[in-house]
Design goal:
The chain is 9% helix and 60% strand. The chain is mainly beta and 138 residues long.
Length: 138
């Protein structure tokens, strides 16, 4: 088990821009503020999204494109570093009319989205390739 200890002193609320990519807007904000470790959560809706899951046997992501308006039922993630660059790892549950889709969020076109970013002060975790899982883990 790896453990990182952080201090938390302030958070940010963001209202993302309509029609722009959800993940990219969060990344741009984090880069602008110099935030390298954080917790992310959000509510809102998207016009479309690309989500996926990690196939543990093939050791690769399987993506699904959702080309329809969906409500963000839950969005949670963290920020760390990978190859000395900012990396957002976000999971999402999206739904409409009783249908629910969930998994890793690759991208999403924003309809309306409010994001809470809680920066974590301390050494930012650095992701490295893990031979056993085929993932980049910290």
């Amino acid at each position: 088990m790896k453990v990182f200890e952080f201090r938390m002193d302030k958070g940010f609320l963001l209202r993302l821009d309509y029609g722009k990519d959800l993940v990219r807007q969060i990344e741009e904000f984090l880069e602008e503020k110099g935030i390298h470790a954080a917790h992310i959560s959000a509510i809102g809706a998207v016009r479309s999204a690309v989500i996926g899951y990690y196939d543990q046997e093939k050791k690769e992501y399987v993506k699904k494109e959702l080309k329809k308006p969906l409500e963000i039922l839950s969005l949670s993630g963290n920020v760390s570093m990978k190859d000395s660059k900012l990396f957002c790892h976000i999971h999402v549950l999206l739904g409409k009319d009783g249908e629910v889709y969930g998994g890793h969020l690759f991208s999403a076109e924003v309809f309306a989205c409010e994001v809470f970013v809680l920066p974590l002060s301390g050494e930012a975790p650095e992701r490295a390739f893990d031979e056993q899982t085929g993932l980049f883990l910290w």
